[in-house]
Amino acid sequence: MKAMILAAGTGTRLRPLTALRPKPLFPVYTVPLLDITVNQLVNAGAHDIMVNSHHLSRQITDFLDHHTCSGASLSHSHEPELLAPAGP
Protein backbone atom coordinates (compact mmCIF):
# COMPACT_ATOMS: atom_id res chain seq x y z
CA MET A 1 0.00 0.00 0.00
CA LYS A 2 1.16 3.53 -0.77
CA ALA A 3 0.42 6.54 1.43
CA MET A 4 0.93 10.28 1.34
CA ILE A 5 1.18 12.53 4.36
CA LEU A 6 0.01 16.07 3.66
CA ALA A 7 2.32 18.29 5.68
CA ALA A 8 2.65 21.42 3.54
CA GLY A 9 0.84 23.85 5.81
CA THR A 10 2.51 26.94 7.20
CA GLY A 11 1.51 26.44 10.82
CA THR A 12 -0.02 29.90 11.17
CA ARG A 13 -2.27 28.96 14.09
CA LEU A 14 0.71 27.83 16.17
CA ARG A 15 2.89 30.88 15.64
CA PRO A 16 5.32 31.85 17.09
CA LEU A 17 6.15 28.19 17.81
CA THR A 18 6.23 27.33 14.10
CA ALA A 19 8.76 30.02 13.31
CA LEU A 20 11.55 27.56 14.17
CA ARG A 21 9.97 24.13 13.68
CA PRO A 22 7.35 22.85 11.23
CA LYS A 23 4.17 21.56 12.83
CA PRO A 24 4.72 17.91 11.74
CA LEU A 25 7.89 17.85 13.83
CA PHE A 26 6.27 19.05 17.05
CA PRO A 27 6.78 16.39 19.71
CA VAL A 28 4.07 14.58 21.59
CA TYR A 29 6.01 13.85 24.75
CA THR A 30 9.31 13.24 22.95
CA VAL A 31 8.07 11.76 19.66
CA PRO A 32 7.49 14.03 16.64
CA LEU A 33 3.98 13.94 15.15
CA LEU A 34 5.43 12.89 11.81
CA ASP A 35 7.13 9.90 13.43
CA ILE A 36 3.85 8.82 15.00
CA THR A 37 2.05 9.13 11.67
CA VAL A 38 4.71 7.22 9.73
CA ASN A 39 4.69 4.39 12.27
CA GLN A 40 0.88 4.17 12.19
CA LEU A 41 0.94 3.95 8.40
CA VAL A 42 3.59 1.21 8.49
CA ASN A 43 1.55 -0.71 11.05
CA ALA A 44 -1.46 -0.39 8.74
CA GLY A 45 0.52 -1.94 5.88
CA ALA A 46 2.00 1.03 4.00
CA HIS A 47 5.31 0.23 2.34
CA ASP A 48 5.81 3.39 0.27
CA ILE A 49 5.21 6.70 2.09
CA MET A 50 5.58 10.18 0.64
CA VAL A 51 5.48 13.38 2.68
CA ASN A 52 4.80 16.72 1.02
CA SER A 53 5.92 19.91 2.73
CA HIS A 54 6.37 23.63 2.28
CA HIS A 55 7.23 25.53 5.48
CA LEU A 56 10.73 24.75 6.81
CA SER A 57 10.89 21.89 4.35
CA ARG A 58 14.57 21.18 4.97
CA GLN A 59 13.78 20.04 8.52
CA ILE A 60 11.26 17.54 7.14
CA THR A 61 13.88 16.27 4.67
CA ASP A 62 16.46 15.90 7.43
CA PHE A 63 13.97 14.04 9.61
CA LEU A 64 13.09 11.61 6.82
CA ASP A 65 16.76 11.08 5.91
CA HIS A 66 17.51 10.00 9.48
CA HIS A 67 14.29 8.15 10.22
CA THR A 68 14.67 4.42 10.65
CA CYS A 69 11.58 2.65 9.48
CA SER A 70 11.62 -1.06 8.88
CA GLY A 71 9.77 -2.21 5.83
CA ALA A 72 8.85 1.18 4.33
CA SER A 73 10.36 3.52 1.81
CA LEU A 74 10.10 7.21 2.77
CA SER A 75 10.23 10.02 0.23
CA HIS A 76 9.69 13.74 0.27
CA SER A 77 8.08 16.25 -2.09
CA HIS A 78 8.66 19.94 -1.51
CA GLU A 79 6.04 22.47 -2.66
CA PRO A 80 7.96 25.71 -3.31
CA GLU A 81 4.60 27.47 -3.58
CA LEU A 82 1.53 26.24 -1.77
CA LEU A 83 -0.77 24.68 -4.33
CA ALA A 84 -3.98 24.65 -2.24
CA PRO A 85 -5.61 21.45 -0.99
CA ALA A 86 -5.77 19.87 -4.45
CA GLY A 87 -2.09 20.56 -5.18
CA PRO A 88 -0.51 17.32 -3.92
Explain the layout of strands and helices.
Elements: E1 2-7, E2 27-28, E3 31-32, H1 33-43, E4 48-53, H2 57-66, E5 73-78
Parallel strand pairs: 1-4, 4-5
Antiparallel strand pairs: 2-3
Explain what you see.
- With 88 residues, this protein is an alpha/beta fold.
- The chain contains two helices and five strands; from the N terminus they run βββαβαβ.
- The strands form two sheets. Strands 1-4-5 form a three-stranded parallel beta sheet, with helices on one face. Strands 2-3 form a two-stranded antiparallel sheet.
- The protein is globular, with a radius of gyration of 13 Å.
Question: How confident is the prediction overall: mean pLDDT?
Answer: 83
Radius of gyration: 13 Å
Q: How many strands appear in the DSSP assignment? A: 5
Structural class: alpha/beta
Order of helices and strands: EEEHEHE
Q: What kind of oligomer do you see?
A: single chain
Give the low-confidence spans: none
% residues in beta strands? 25-35%
- Within the largest sheet, what's the order of strands? 1-4-5
Summarize the structure.
The chain is of the alpha/beta class. 24% of the residues lie in helices and 25% in strands.
Keywords:
5 strands; alpha/beta; single chain; 25% strand; 88 residues; two-stranded antiparallel ribbon; 2 helices; three-stranded parallel sheet
